[in-house]
Amino acid sequence: MGSPAFIARPDPDGGYTGVHLQYDSSPPNMVPLLLAAYRFRFGRDLEALSRFLVDDVAAWEEIGTDLLDGSPPGLLQRLTGGEQWPSREMTGVVNLDGTPAERDVITQHSSEGHHWGYVLHPAGIEVISRQMNARGPVISWDTDPRTHFSEAMALWMPGTPPPMSLPRDLPKLTPTPPAAPAQTATRPPRR
User: Fold this and answer.
1) How much is the pTM?
2) Radius of gyration of the chain (CA)
3) In degrees rounded to 5, what are phi and psi of residue 115?
4) Which of the residues 9, 95, 100, 112 has an alpha carbon 20 to 30 A from that of 176?
């Protein structure tokens, strides 16, 4: 579903700088992916996550399940229903004269036309309902990715708690243990 958004990192002046995201960008889709990516694929390394999502691309067509690499299998099943798809950068974007388009940096002053914004702060993800507000509430990085997030734009108001609810029946989320190193077979000594 096309609901344009942006993913950004905060600027020292209190603003943000980011890139465009074209599809599947509502909070119920994006926030769980971002929370799980931060925790599992990027090992709580916000700088690595920000480089991957903001710095190393011109624009995103879609964010995929590759962000969930390293997540527990139960979480993958819950978030995607078992489906998998890759993240895709936008390609083939050209100017009106046919020349390749340059990276279009999104800021708080140029984010009109985007429905949602996701600013990756050290404390968590600021979710901006861009058609309603210039800023939004922050969801802590410690929030369980299985949490349900509302897509009602009017509920994402700055200074209010994020509109979210965690199902009560969920067991504690634990990371997948690393695989044991492979054992090498040894031959018995020759006599």
Assistant:
1) 0.84
2) 19
3) -80, -40
4) 9
Whether residue 104 contacts residue 20, with contact meaning beta carbons closer than 8 Å, is answered with yes
Q: CA angle at residue 116 from 28 to 139, to 5 degrees? A: 60
* Cβ–Cβ under 8 Å, residues 189 and 166: no
CA distance 181 to 22: 41
Per-residue pLDDT, 178: 47
With beta carbons less than 8 A apart as the criterion, state whether 17 and 8 touch: yes
If you search the block for the tokens 């997030």, which residue do you land on?
149
pLDDT band at 167 (very low <50, low <70, confident <90, very high): confident
- Tell me the three state secondary structure of residue 88: strand
Taking the C-alpha atoms of residue 22 and residue 151, their distance in angstroms, rounded to an integer, is 16
Q: What local confidence, expressed as pLDDT, does residue 191 receive?
A: 42
The amino acid occupying position 8 is A
